[in-house]
Predict the 3D structure of the following.
Amino acid sequence: MFFYIAIIVLIYVLVHALWQPFKYWKRRNIPQLKPTPLVGNFGPLLRRQCSIAELVQDIYNSHPNHRYFGAYQFFLPTLVLKDPELIKKVAVKEFDTFPEHRTVALEEVDSLLASNIFFMKGGEKWHVLRCALSPAFTSSKLKAMFALMQECAQQFVEYFENQTGVITLEMKDAFTRYTNDVIGSTAFGITCNSLKDRDNTFYAMGLQATSITLFRGLRVFMQTISPRLAKIFQLSIVPKFIETYFVNIIRESISIRKEKGIVRPDMIHLLLEARQGRLKYDDVGEDSGFAIAQESEARKSHGALKASITDEDIAAQAFSFFLAGFDTSATAMCFAAYELAVNCDIQRRLQSEIDTSLASNQGEITFEAVLGLAYLDQVVSETLRKWPPITFTDRKSVAPFTIEAKLPHEQTTHFEAGTVCWIPIYAIHRDSLYYPDPGVFDPERFHKDNLHKIKPGTYLPFGMGPKNCIASRFAILETKLILFNILSKFNIVPVKETKIPFVQGRNGLFLSAEGGFWLGLQHRER
């Protein structure tokens, strides 16, 4: 009898322990999305019932009349922010309270990730590094790197120019090879041609570094819920052999440059300049377009800052730059190509603009010409609106904060330090309150005469505030550049493998296409 009572008590305790974390928001009188044991509100994603974007949309739509509400990332209580004013409060106005992302890599386990400005905590070293590195991404510095980027884009187009008929491509594979070559050239000082040399080591390592396998996902999960166990068992997110490979490339490049006095207009050179305090925010006036994440005025006015930047710090920034640019930029390119393929009128109008630019520049593709194309900027901006590669972002508080009551059903609420705030970028971009007919691809939303209609805080492809994407200008430039090069020579067309309407993939934490991004390149008639 005692045995059965013990079993019942044990079951009760276990059930109580499993459900207790999911009462976090109820105890604070905050509406919450109904959770499922163990997985919280992420069950549909784990069961592959929906894509990450569809999950973000469903969570966002669950409380239509609330500015914020509670949800659960597995056991983690998460405050979902819907109101643009609240998002600005968290990301900009009260940045000192929300200086970091929830995902902070463990230095004892993932030293390379933990040393880059995205994953590190928002302390003094982050501030110094961010101020030192911001000038590396001004228009003037990108202009200096433009020739390296154009060489990769031209290489991409030339590979297909001698092929006949409609060239069927899986665009994600093709575009990651382009972004790999651009990053290799501009950030690591390595020249690649990943379309010709398909198995080159740099590309192979990039694929391994960015792939989200089941085991890697579990390691991320363990670092999140139990940092202590992750340290004990050394559950690193990035395998050590990959970390060693990228660190050695940087060290070797720095050593050769010092020894031979080599100066190359790339990211390593700029980071070395930052280390010596010779890198200033010296923009030349050109801009990359509407979508860029604006740098703070404090950093723009900051003079040259001599920062304590080690070779390992340089390797960490270059590696994070690689991780961010390899996959997400290629994803944006895929969606731009898809939308142009299924919206022929938009593609023809963009090609007309490109042809006019080439004619006025004697057939040359220049930095100023690419940034001067208004309709190209509208197409890229609308792509990032409809298909933001990063579907959500977050901020974590390091001090208590308060949200004042604004709506009749709200009450002033105090939150404790450590609260995670979730910003559902994809769903905000698809909210008809901010973008009429949000499922329609319409570059006219970003025509200069319509920009006043876009409410601040509702366009967030690169985040917002001091923790925004430092390399947004770079990402937009390389995207515009490859589209310019492709469309000057080819039409992008649907093929039999193209899925119309588009079907989102249900694997991973990023936007993807079910079965791949299959499209064709068709030589333009002259």
Remarks:
- Residues 9-13 have pLDDT under 50 and may be disordered.
- The chain has 21 helices and nine strands.
